[in-house]
Sequence to fold (595 residues):
Amino acid sequence: MDIHRKEPVLVIGVGNPFRSDDGAGLVIAERIAEENLVGVETFTTAGDILSLLDRWQGREHVIIFDAMQSGKKAGTVFCCQANDKKLPHELLHFSSHSFGINEIIALAAMLSQLPQKLVIYGIEGQDFVHGSVLSPPVSRAVNQLLKKITRSLKKMNQSNSVLNK
Amino acid sequence: MKTNQTIKVEYLARVEGEGGLKIRIKDGKIADLKLNIFEPPRYFEGFLRGRQYSEAPDITARICGICPVAYQMSSIHAMEAVFGLKQSGYLRELRRLLYCGEWIESHILHAYLLHAPDFLGYPDAIQMAGDHPEVVKAGLKLKKTGNEIVNLLGGREIHPINSRVGGWYKIPPKKQFLRLLEELKWARDAAIDVVKFTSTLNFPDFERDYEFVALSHPDEYALNEGRLISSKGLDIAVDEYEDHFEEQHLRHSTALHSNHKGFGAYHVGPLARYTLNYDKLSPIAKQAAQDAGMGTTCNNPFKSIIVRAIETLWACDEAIRIIENFEMPEKPWVDYDINGGIGHAITEAPRGILYHRYRIDSSGYIRTAKIVPPTSQNLRTIELDLYEFVPPRLHKSKDELTWECEQAIRNYDPCISCSCHFLKLDIERD
Fold:
C-alpha cells in the first residue's frame, strides 16, 4: 500500500490472525478492502501498533476494529470516539494486545497526534486459542457490523460526491 | 526500618512477557530472592523437529515480535553452517543492514518508552509524553526509521519474511534503499541527542564485576559472526558453546537459567558488547560516548540506557555506510547442496547473544533443535544484581524499593516472551 496516498477515511484492523477471535478486526478491515469503496483506505496490523501514530497522522476520519476481552457476552460490539473528552472505562481493558489501542490513543492525545475523528469498534471475543477461524457469535457480530459499516461508508461517499458536484 | 518484610511484584510492567519478583527479607538480610517466570513454555524446539530446514527462519522469527530478525539470522547461519555455506559481499552486508534496523527499533522502544520513565519518575511513557512531548516524538520517529529498514528489506515490519538460507528471496531496487538515506541521516543526528539525553539521567552508584560474554569480530562491531569471547578470558568458536555453557531448570522459572561451566552467571547484551568491542565502534559512536562521559568499559547496568543509545547511533551510522556502498548482487541468494549434519550459530540479538543448534538429516529435515535466547542467559545475573542492590536500600519505603527493583530488572530489557516470556515483585519481611 502506498502510505503517501491519503484517502479521507482510513480503516484499521488490529489483531493476530492465528489466535481465533483475536483476528476479528483484521477480518473486518480485509472485507471492507474487498468492497473497493471510493475514498476509503484500509490497513491491517498484527504487530507494532505504535506505528499507527504515524499511520493516522493528518487523517480526517479513522475507524479502528479490534477484538476485546472485557468479560462481556461474546459478540458484543463496543463503540466509542477517541476524541471524546472522557473515554469510557471499558477502553482501559479494550484490547487483548499488550501494548493496547487504549495506550496508543492516550499517547497520541498527549502528543496531539490524534486524527480529527477516531472511532473505535471493539468486538468481544470468545476464543483466543490457536486457530484462524472466528467463533460463531463473533462471526455473526462481524457480519452484522460489516453491513452497518459498509452502508454508512457508502452513504458518506454519496453525500461527499454530492457536496463536491 | 522494618527488618523483616516481603516485597512482591505480581506482574512486572514494561517488560516483554510475564514474570514476577519475590524477595523475602529476614533480620535485615535477603533470605530468598527469586525472579518467577510463569509464562507458559513455548515448545518451539519440539515442534521444529520434522520440519524442513528452510522453515526454521520463519518459524523461529515467531518467538519474538521485537527481535524476529535475530531468530532468523541465528537459524539461517546455523543452517548455512550445516551446508558449508559462507556469506560474503553485499549479501552479507544486507544481513547487517536488516539487523541494524532491528537494533534501532528495539533499543529505542526500550530506552524511550520502557526505561526512560524509570529515571524521570513517570509510571509510563504516556505520562512522560505529557511533560516531554518532543523527546517522545523524536523517539517514535527514530524507532520508525528502524522499522522502515526492516519493512523494506524484510518485507514487513514485524516477523519479516524475506530472509532465507543462502541469502534473500528478493532484493529491492537500489533507489528504494537510497530513499532511506535522508531519514537515516536525520536519525544519526537524533541518536547523538539521545546519547546526550540519556547521559544526563541520574544513575544509582552500582557496579558489579561481571563476566561479559559477546561475539567478537576482528574487523567490525560483531552482529552475525565472530568468536565468542568473555571478559574473563573465554575465546571459543561458536560451535564450542555447549562445551562451556549449560542450561539449568529451576522450579520458579519456566525459562531455563544459563551458566558458564566453572564460572557461574554471566552477562550478555549491550554492556557486554560495548565493553568487549568498544574499539570496533564507529568514530562518531566513540565520540558521542566520550562526550557523554563514558569510558571504554561499563559495569553499571543502569547505564545500559546510555549504551543502547550509543549502539543506536552506531547502527544508524552502519546502515548509512551499507546503503551508501550499495551494490546489487547478481542473484539474491547463493545456491547450495543440502546435506545432513549439525550446525551452530550465534548472533547478537538486541538483548545479547542468541544461540541456535540444529541437526539436519540428509533430506533437509530438522531432527533436533536447541535455542538459547539472551534473556535466559541474563536471568541469574539479574537475580545476583538484586542480591547486591537491595540490602543497602532496605531503609527505603516498600513502594520506592519495589520501583527501584523493577528498574534494576528493566536494565536488561528482559524479553520473557523469548526466554519462554515476565514481573510480579514480592518482598517478604518475616
